[in-house]
Write a structure and sequence with these properties.
By secondary structure, the protein is α+β, with helices and mostly antiparallel strands. The protein is built from 5 helices and 9 strands; from the N terminus they run βββααβαβαββββα. The chain is globular, with a radius of gyration of 14 Å. 32% of the residues are buried.
């Protein structure tokens, strides 16, 4: 299933860093920024997460919920949140099933080799549950949160 703008976002239920299960249906009526990233506490992922952290008041004003998703486990997520004071939930998808539905897991180039792994990407799901924006590949993790905010403001 491919993510398409204007179409319903793929349903999911994943465990969150807050100890609760989170389903996309829980957020109906709100804008959801679902960002997919490779690994907790690595340089690019930390810059991206801290960007979303720093813009959190702006996202809240726009009634947008930020959720990070990676294959890391809940303990790793908890440590990452604590270390960088992240004010949003990180979801654990160890088998990458949800990431595959969103096009965030598959073949990618790393150090000149083709590997299977997480593709840094972001999907904005509107209050109606439909995809309103999809960044299929995020090139500059540190600049990306500002671009998401800019999109939500437009």
């Amino acid at each position: 299933m491919a993510v398409k703008i204007g179409k319903p976002a793929p349903a999911f239920t994943l465990k969150g860093s807050d100890g609760k299960e989170h389903s996309l249906a829980d957020y109906l009526g709100k804008t959801v920024v679902l960002y997919f990233y490779p690994k907790d506490d690595t340089p690019g992922c930390t810059k991206e997460a801290c960007g979303f952290r720093d813009f959190q008041p702006n996202f809240k004003k726009l009634k947008a919920v930020v959720l990070g998703v990676s294959t890391d486990g809940l303990t790793s997520h908890g440590d990452f949140i604590k270390k960088f004071k992240l004010p949003f939930v990180l979801l654990s998808n160890p088998n990458a099933s949800v990431m595959r539905k969103y096009g965030a897991f598959g073949e990618k180039m790393q150090f000149g080799r083709t590997i299977m792994g997480t593709i840094r990407s972001t999907v904005v799901v509107g209050p109606d549950g439909k995809v309103s924006k999809h960044w299929k590949k995020v090139a500059k993790a540190d600049e990306h949160p500002a671009k998401v905010l800019e999109f939500l403001r437009s």
